Design the sequence.
């Protein structure tokens, strides 16, 4: 299962709400999340780690944007 | 830099921020701020509204430098760590009125969530009702969040938009220092009696504000978020910050002889349980729908978040309305029209909560 979420421009706590819904839906697998604030990056990463996902940060499309890859096997 | 980054984002970082506020807020009281009001974002914005003449309650008029410090401290932190990011456009008019009603609810209770914690730490039992109301309001907000409530995306904008609030704060700071008279008798108004006349020396208030603003920006300290995250995702990260604040402030109050337990005759408080609860429930719901407590909104406005800035301005205008229309409580109890305003505010928040939702994209 994999999910893609674009949380750019969304303010707290929307990115976390969207990722939470995706985690609840797929249970395990891959989730890709775009965020554009460091706060959202921290919040999404903390949520994902608490749910047993590994978090890696991928390339930036442009300054200040982050692609987070969450995965759980 | 990355080591400091990870410290501030860590559990110890948020605990450090809570302890920092927990020590300094009671000290500000010792140095002159009103009792159990070392830091209260709602009360301080209300005093600013008074100093500018947006209301004429002559006991609560003072340009509180802590507020300017929060925004400017957050600005400094955001610039240092490259997080200053001008953005706006997420339903600003709704955020404005969420700010207005958040302030009205806070002034029915007599305090923002930070002051609710400080009141509890000072022995004011009425704070329990306020905090219970706050939690209930946030819980209600979480139900909307789960149901797809969303104020929509903000978009990046030009730097000028992000600088409006910091520049406004510098102007207010200049007014605070020089207290110019724009008309006979004011503004700038400055209370000569009451809570507005009680304040720590300006320079100390400003330095504490800058420090708190800096730390709160780095750690994302937020009282509403603390309770929301526990309810929504069982995450106690932010909660450990507010718990630390309350415990440390309690100890400091004991040391300074500022602890007085009870419900009756607490400083700048009333003991009408129903309206303490419902006032803060309104605020909690409005904060949850807007995504941050009043302190957090100030910090975000210093980071360039124009939508948070609109919420802050809404709160300041709301303070003017609360005092001009006899909504704000006093030590005697709720104002004549306070309860009615809380009900109207709750209806407004419910309408917004139900109407601003995205259909599930599944």
Sequence:
């Amino acid at each position: 299962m994999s999910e893609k979420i674009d949380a750019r421009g969304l303010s707290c706590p929307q990115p976390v709400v969207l990722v939470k819904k995706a985690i609840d839906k797929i249970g395990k697998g891959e989730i890709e999340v775009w965020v554009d604030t460091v706060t959202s990056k921290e919040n999404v990463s903390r949520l994902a780690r608490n749910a047993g996902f590994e978090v890696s940060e991928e390339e930036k499309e442009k300054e200040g944007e982050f692609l987070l890859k969450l995965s759980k096997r | 830099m990355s080591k400091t980054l990870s410290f501030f984002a860590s559990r110890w970082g948020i605990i450090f921020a809570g302890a920092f506020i927990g020590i300094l807020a009671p000290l500000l009281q010792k140095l002159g701020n009103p009792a159990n009001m070392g830091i209260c974002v709602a009360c301080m914005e209300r005093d600013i509204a008074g100093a500018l003449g947006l209301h004429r309650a002559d006991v609560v008029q003072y340009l509180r430098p802590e507020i300017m410090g929060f925004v400017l401290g957050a600005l400094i932190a955001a610039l240092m760590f490259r997080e200053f990011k001008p953005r706006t456009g997420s339903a600003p008019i709704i955020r404005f009125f969420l700010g207005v009603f958040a302030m009205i609810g806070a002034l029915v209770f007599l305090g923002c969530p930070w002051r609710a914690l400080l009141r509890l730490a000072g022995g004011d039992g009425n704070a329990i009702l306020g905090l219970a109301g706050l939690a209930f309001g946030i819980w209600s907000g979480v139900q909307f969040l789960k149901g797809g409530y969303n104020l929509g995306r903000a978009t990046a904008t030009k730097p000028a938009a992000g600088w409006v609030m910091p520049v406004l704060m510098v102007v207010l700071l200049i007014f605070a220092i020089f207290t110019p008279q724009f008309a006979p008798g004011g503004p700038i108004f400055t209370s000569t009696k009451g809570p507005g006349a009680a304040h720590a020396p300006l320079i100390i208030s400003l330095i504490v504000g800058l420090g708190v603003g800096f730390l709160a920006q780095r750690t994302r300290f937020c009282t509403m978020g603390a309770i929301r995250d526990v309810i929504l995702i069982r995450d106690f990260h932010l909660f450990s910050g507010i718990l630390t604040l309350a415990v440390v402030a309690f100890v400091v109050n004991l040391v300074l002889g500022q602890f007085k337990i009870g419900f009756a005759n607490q400083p700048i408080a009333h003991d009408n349980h129903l309206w303490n609860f419902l006032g803060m429930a309104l605020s909690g719901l409005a904060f949850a729908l807007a995504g941050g407590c009043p302190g957090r909104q100030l910090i975000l406005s210093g980071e360039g978040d124009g939508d948070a800035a609109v919420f802050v301005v809404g709160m300041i205008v709301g303070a003017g309305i609360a005092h001009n229309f006899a909504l704000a409580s006093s030590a005697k109890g709720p104002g004549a029209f306070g309860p009615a305003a809380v009900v109207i505010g709750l209806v407004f928040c419910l309408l917004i909560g139900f109407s601003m939702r995205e259909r599930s994209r599944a």
